[in-house]
Every structure is written in structure tokens, then in C-alpha cells.
Design a protein that fits this description.
The protein has about 190 residues and is of the alpha/beta class. The protein has one domain: Aldolase class I (TIM Barrel). Helix content is about 45%, strand content about 20%. It contains nine helices and eight strands. Strands 1-2-3-4-5-6-7-8 form an eight-stranded parallel β-barrel, surrounded by six helices. Helix 4 (about 70-80) packs across helix 5. The two termini are about 20 Å apart.
């Protein structure tokens, strides 16, 4: 499936931080899950369970315990674990994912002008097209990034209200990732 199509079907992404939230995400109407925890021993089973529930699942590479932080780990995830994609703050991980044909999302934290410039530099240098901006409650940053480098921007972090979701989507973001389960329930309002 084309990356952009993941988020045409679901503007709200279930960001899950523990096993109980994962179980609730499987039952939710959200069709995309960002898994923000896990370990090498259980991750394949988690991905299989998500797929059994017809969910698209992206693993946050930097938060999965037990993997080396190298190219071999990315290849293993692609060939053995088989998620729909990975998320990482590291541009090298993103390039490895691209090398192995694994969908990816580059996660960038925006805390000041320097972090904005650094993220924009990496996005341009590596021609990254799928980016999650943290924290998500800064739609004016997404608008600025869209002007500088149009791409698929996902807004994540600190998103708690429907108003924030609408403002973020109106700024040009493709989707919002949130651990707020009330927003998972109301995702139909945003599609």
C-alpha cells in the first residue's frame, strides 16, 4: 500500500505505549497503530496480531528493546518481523529502511529554531518524505515545513482535543498520532 494511503483511511493513529493500550487499539476503529514499546522476543507476535485485526502497524525502532541499532536489525525487522513500517529519529535507520524496501517515518522533535533547521536539513539531504513532528500541537511548524519541503507530515505528541486535531490537519498534516483513546473513538470526525 502506498504510504499516503495509510493515512487516507485513518487521520487518527493509535500511538500505543503498553500491552493494554495495544489491546484497546486492536478493538478501536483506528486502522493504523504506532507501537512505541516492545522487545525482540514478542514483537513478531504483536505485528501478527495487528495484521490479524487488519491494522497497519509501524514499530518505533528506537523503542524496541533487544535489537542492535544497526543495519542488520533493520533488515531482520523487514524480513522476519514484517511490520508495515518503522519509525526512527535517526536518519541512518531511515536510509537502511529505504534500502530494504521498508516503509518508514522519520520522527523529528521541534524544540527550537536549531532543531527545526536540523530536521529540515536531514529531510532535504536524505529526501525523506514521511515525517512525524513532535510535539504535535505546533501546526504553524507543519505549515512552515510544508512550504520548505512538501511531504507527508504526521503530527504527534501532546494532542488531547478534537480542536487540536482539526487545527493540525488544516495546517497541512497528513495525520495525527495520539495515545488519547477518546480521539481514537472519534476518528470518524476527522476523515
Amino acid at each position: 500500500m502506498n504510504f499516503k494511503n495509510y493515512f487516507k483511511i485513518s487521520k487518527i493513529i493509535a500511538a500505543v505505549k503498553d500491552d493494554e493500550a495495544f489491546k484497546r487499539a486492536l478493538k478501536s476503529k483506528c486502522s493504523v497503530i504506532f507501537l512505541l514499546h516492545g522487545d525482540i522476543l514478542t514483537i513478531k507476535e504483536v505485528v501478527e496480531k495487528a495484521h490479524q485485526h487488519n491494522k497497519v502497524i509501524f514499530l518505533h525502532f528506537d523503542m524496541i528493546d533487544g535489537f542492535g541499532r544497526d543495519e542488520s536489525a533493520v533488515r531482520y525487522i523487514k524480513e522476519v518481523v514484517c511490520p508495515d513500517g518503522i519509525i526512527s529519529i535517526k536518519s541512518s535507520v531511515i536510509k537502511w529502511a529505504e534500502t530494504y524496501g521498508l516503509d518508514y517515518i522519520y520522527r523529528a522533535f521541534m524544540v527550537d529554531r536549531q532543531s527545526f533547521d536540523s530536521a529540515l536539513h536531514n529531510i532535504r539531504r536524505f529526501k525523506i518524505e514521511n515525517i512525524e513532528i513532535m510535539p504535535g500541537i505546533i501546526p504553524n511548524v507543519i505549515s512552515a515545513l510544508m512550504k520548505e519541503h512538501p511531504a507527508n507530515y504526521i503530527s504527534g505528541g501532546l494532542i488531547t482535543t478534537e480542536e487540536q486535531v482539526f487545527e493540525i490537519l488544516n495546517s497541512g498534516a497528513t495525520a495525527c498520532s495520539t495515545s488519547n483513546e477518546e480521539l481514537w473513538k472519534n476518528f470518524g470526525k476527522f476523515n
